[in-house]
Amino acid sequence: xxxxIDLDDALIAEIMEITGLSDAQEAVExxxxxxxxxxxxxxxxxxxxxxxxxxx
Length: 56
Hints:
It is built from 3 helices and no strands. The chain is mostly helical. It has one domain. α1 (9-19) packs across α2 (24-41). It is globular, with a radius of gyration of 12 Å.
């Protein structure tokens, strides 16, 4: 899926530093996969409703 979104440059840079990835698209995909993995392990660990409309 192709989407165009505005992301916080500092946040992307931090994800890239943490993961060691040099491509922003790969870093975003890695972060999303990790988010889903954590949620699948324990759905209560992330109150996604509380995150609606708020910067994480």
